[in-house]
Amino acid sequence: MLKLIPATDRHHAAPVHWLSSHFLFSFADYYDPKNIHFGPLRVFNDDVIQGKSGFPQHPHSEMEIVTLVLEGELCHADTMGNKSTIKKGEVQRMTAGTGLAHSEQNDKEDAAHIYQLWFLPNQKGLAPSYEQKDIDFLDSKNELVPLVSGQKVLEDVVYMNSNSTVYWCNLAADKTVTFKTFPIRNTFLYVKEGSLYINGVDVGPNDQIRSTDENVLEIRASKDAQFILIDLPASEANY
Predict the structure, then answer these.
(1) For residue 74, which of 48, 43, 110, 112 has the smallest C-alpha distance?
(2) What Cα–Cα distance (Å) separates residue 159 from each residue in 16, 81, 150?
(3) Hey, CA dihedral for 113, 230, 42, 102, is it positive or negative?
(4) How many angstroms separate the CA atoms of 152 and 160, rounded?
(5) In whole angstroms, how far apart are CA 137 and each of 49, 59, 85, 141, 188?
(6) For the chain, which end, N or C, has fewer CB atoms within 10 Å of the first or last residue's CB respectively?
């Protein structure tokens, strides 16, 4: 079954002048008991952070936090002693584990556009850790590029403690990619731009597809498109 969630159903939040967020799941002041998580995917925030601003230091625990930078860059600092700049096309994973605090600042004049995803970990009590990699995913063509995964068999990806894999795809008009899955797995897809035709369903910019009990997704671009696809266990237990 494919469930289409249109862009207009996203929750928009602008709690401060420098931040514009679209929440795809319950988060902060947005609460919908029917939209808490999708398997272990607990948070998906589509954020635009204005220049010379950002999130001051704040705590996290028992969560795998993935950040993709789509435009601009973000400066990261945490209580583990890490200090880095996450640039366009780079991917960061932070295992909050037993607890840490971090800050995220946009020190440039131009806005930064990021996706931030939170996954329930496959085990609790992990030591906090951090990984960052330049995967240059925004320049890929007509293929699903793995960015973050709990599958150690995949190379050149950021590892996370969740039985999930995050892919990116830049798909040219009239090109098709096929994603094979299983009824015990879920697939989440979010379109950044362009339009897609997925198993008979038209999907436009900022629309979501939440797929359950499918064996294969045939994804064709009606217009040049960019999208993120996440392969997930069907339950938050992360098996």
Answers:
(1) 112
(2) 33, 20, 6
(3) negative
(4) 9
(5) 21, 29, 17, 9, 18
(6) N
Check residue 171 and give its pLDDT: 98
Using the structure block, give the residue that is written with the tokens 């890929």. Answer: 140
Which token pair is 167? 């892919």
The first and second tokens of residue 69, run together, are 């930078």
Of 208, 202, 187, 226, the closest CA to residue 1 belongs to: 187
Q: Specify the residue for token string 């945490």.
A: 78
Strands (E), the chain: 2-5, 11-13, 19-23, 41-49, 53-60, 64-71, 73-78, 83-87, 90-95, 100-106, 112-119, 129-134, 145-149, 158-159, 165-171, 176-180, 185-198, 201-203, 208-212, 216-233
Give me the amino acid identity at 25: F
Span 75-101, pLDDT tens digits: 999 999 999 999 999 999 999 999 999
Q: Can you tell me which residue has the tokens 């799941």?
A: 25
Give the span between the Cα atoms of 104 and 171, in whole angstroms. Answer: 30
